[in-house]
Amino acid sequence: MVDEVEKDSQGHPGELEISFGSHMGYLDFIQELSEKIGLMAGFDEDARYWIGLSIRESVTNAIQHGNKLDETKKVGIRFESLPDRFVVCVQDEGEGFEESDVPDALDPENLLKPSGRGIFYVRSFMDEVCYKILPEGGCEMRMEKRLNHQTQGEENEH
Amino acid sequence: MNIDTRSVNGVTILDIHGKITMGEGSRGLREKVRETLESGVTNILLNLGNVNYIDSAGIGELVSSFTTVTNQGGQLKLLNLTEKLEQLLAITKLTTVFEFFDDEAAAVGSFS
Q: How many CB pairs under 8 A join A and B?
């Protein structure tokens, strides 16, 4: 399942790509993997928690709304650790969605709805989030988290 | 996820342990709240101090439990929020919806 993992000469974990069938049973693994890659990239504990949650929410969205829980359809994740930021792309085989169609989780009319907060949390905890419909089919959510260089430097001293 | 049930001064306290996440964890909470309401209890306090992880589906189940209990004329309140859970509730303005406490006696005493 793991296609590629490497560390570059600066010690960053480099790139990792995985793909898996659309099964919610993978969510705990994906979240833990995301937090571990976040650790390798130099994020502090708090940031790793929110990165793990954001990627978990993005994958949940890809499985549930993108691939409609069809286990034969794949979800792909590409983690890319750069010196100044961490980039994660989550792909599904769905038809995509319009960002403007996602209900506002903070609208008073939506506060008591049981769903609709996942993407809001991703937007809240990652620095940049964008979506695109892929020319070969499917949808990709791209998330970016910038590194706090002071935290990274402190961890490198140990 | 495991849920232990106890009763204090007419309030049913659900001590929740583990994860409340998409799938089994969130369904378990929904079923326990439904069972509690069916037993005739309408004052429910969710003790979340031992919930070590929650996602948006779990937050949704807290909201769903709140509306179910409220619609039946009861009250559902929260006890012992972790720092992360309180942050998740705050950024979605749900701290304006839920009553939450750090002290169990104060929480139990707040039910009318």
A: 53
How far is the C-alpha of A122 from the C-alpha of A125, rounded, in Å?
A: 5
pLDDT of A8 higher than 70 = no
Domain boundary assignment for chain B? 2-107
Q: Do A120 and B60 touch (CB under 8 A)?
A: no
Predicted model pTM: 0.89
Check CB contact under 8 Å for A115 and B23. Answer: no
Residue at A109: amino acid letter: E
Q: What are A44-64's pLDDT values in tens digits? A: 999 999 999 999 999 999 999
Q: Which of A53, A111, A124 sits opposite B93 (nearest CB)?
A: A111
Q: If you average pLDDT over residues A28-56, what whole number do you get?
A: 96
Select from B23, B84, B96 the Cβ nearest to the Cβ of A49: B84
Distance from CA of A58 to the nearest CA of B (A): 11
CATH superfamily of A14-82+95-128: Histidine kinase-like ATPase, C-terminal domain (3.30.565.10)
CA dihedral sign of residues B90, B35, B32, A122: negative
The yes/no answer to whether this complex scores an ipTM above 0.85 is yes
